[in-house]
């Protein structure tokens, strides 16, 4: 009777029994997972203690400073060293003139102006000078005999001097109608033609001698400090031709508008290249100085934005040394401001902090 009652009670609470069994299984599973996790994880360090981390290994390369030839490049314009516009010194009609491209020697006649009355004026001046000279000689003989006053002799001398000046002026007026070449060169431009009437100051011809060239350029104020006359230079034209020369001038004061300094260099042009008036690049070779040659990929920036390079010091600690870039291309960078000898980090600098001790693995250059 009692057994029958117990069976009925179990049957009525069957759902509660199954629920309790499932709950027991879940609790057992959670307990096993906690034990497994505890076995896999290391215990936390006690407060106030630190766990040392293994040192980062970096690759370094021993580098030494070497000679560097700084090269300053600026754009400029080539011009003939001897280039002049021949101008009229008197008035007249152009009768003859040199042809374009004609080679002339120093002293050759370039152009002929109409003589007009200049020849007659010269003849009159010569006659007047001869008369005044004869009168002076006669006065000097009379003065030696005491037959003429001193003031009369002075008048004769003054008249002779005026006649000599007038003769000189007449000769110059005739010479000015025949302009001559001031140097050896080529007639490059004709500003007048036969039959034109010119007055003093009018342009007649342009004479050019391109055996020597000069290049004028402007250098920024932050790059002029190392410049001085005598430095070797080269000029590169747009078509690749190159001339070697010397820096001859560096301005003392900067241009008021551009704040740049004018420089001038001179070049021999033995092949008579037609470069006068052309644009060119001026390459100024500055004095040789010690510098390091690095790969541009090794350059980095510090917290202040300054350019530097990662190195390992004598205590095998990572450092970032600031530097100055002298020149940089996609393949190489020349820098200064570093010790003559140093160990430059080529790989692994990003895995350690400044001042951290590192393991060093040297690589060949």
TrEMBL record:
The chain crosses the membrane at residues 16-32. Keywords: Membrane, Transmembrane, Transmembrane helix. One of its GO terms (molecular function) is efflux transmembrane transporter activity. InterPro entries: Beta-barrel_RND_2, RND_pump_MFP. The keyword Manganese does not apply. Residues 215-283 form the CusB-like beta-barrel domain. GO terms for cellular component: efflux pump complex. The keyword Membrane applies. SUPFAM superfamilies: HlyD-like secretion proteins. Belongs to the membrane fusion protein (MFP) (TC 8.A.1) family. This is Efflux transporter periplasmic adaptor subunit. It comes from Oceanimonas baumannii. The lineage of its organism: Bacteria, Pseudomonadati, Pseudomonadota, Gammaproteobacteria, Aeromonadales.
């Amino acid at each position: 009777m009692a057994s029958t009652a117990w069976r009925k009670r179990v049957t009525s609470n069957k759902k509660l029994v199954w629920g309790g069994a499932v709950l027991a299984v879940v609790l057992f599973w959670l307990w096993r997972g906690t034990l497994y996790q505890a076995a896999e994880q290391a215990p936390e360090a006690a407060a106030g203690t630190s766990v040392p981390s293994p040192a980062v290994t970096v690759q370094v390369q021993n580098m030494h400073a070497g000679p560097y030839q700084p090269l300053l490049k600026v754009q400029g314009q080539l011009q003939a060293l001897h280039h002049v516009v021949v101008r009229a010194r008197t008035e007249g009609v152009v009768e003859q003139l040199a042809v374009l491209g004609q080679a002339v020697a120093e002293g050759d006649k370039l152009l002929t102006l109409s003589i007009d009355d200049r020849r007659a004026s010269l003849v009159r001046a010569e006659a007047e000078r001869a008369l005044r000279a004869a009168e002076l000689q006669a006065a000097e003989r009379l003065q030696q005999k005491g037959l003429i006053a001193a003031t009369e002799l002075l008048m004769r001398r003054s008249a002779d001097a005026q006649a000599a000046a007038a003769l000189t002026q007449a000769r110059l007026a005739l010479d000015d109608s025949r302009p001559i070449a001031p140097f050896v060169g080529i007639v490059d431009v004709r500003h007048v033609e036969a039959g034109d009437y010119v007055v003093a100051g009018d342009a007649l011809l342009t004479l050019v001698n391109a055996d020597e060239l000069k290049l004028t350029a402007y250098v920024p104020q932050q790059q002029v400090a190392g410049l001085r006359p005598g430095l070797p230079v080269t000029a590169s034209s747009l078509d690749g031709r190159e001339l070697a020369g010397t820096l001859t001038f560096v301005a003392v004061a900067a241009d008021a508008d551009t704040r740049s300094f004018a420089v001038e260099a001179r070049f021999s042009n033995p092949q008579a290249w037609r470069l006068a008036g052309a644009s060119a690049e001026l390459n100024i070779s500055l004095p040789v100085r010690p510098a390091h040659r690095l790969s541009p990929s090794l350059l980095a920036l510090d917290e202040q934005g300054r350019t530097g390079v990662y190195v390992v010091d004598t205590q095998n600690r990572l450092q970032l040394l600031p530097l100055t870039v002298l020149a940089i291309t996609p393949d190489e960078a020349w820098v200064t401001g570093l010790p003559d000898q140093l160990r430059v980090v080529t790989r692994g600098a990003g895995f350690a902090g400044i001042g951290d001790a590192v393991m060093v693995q040297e690589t060949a250059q």
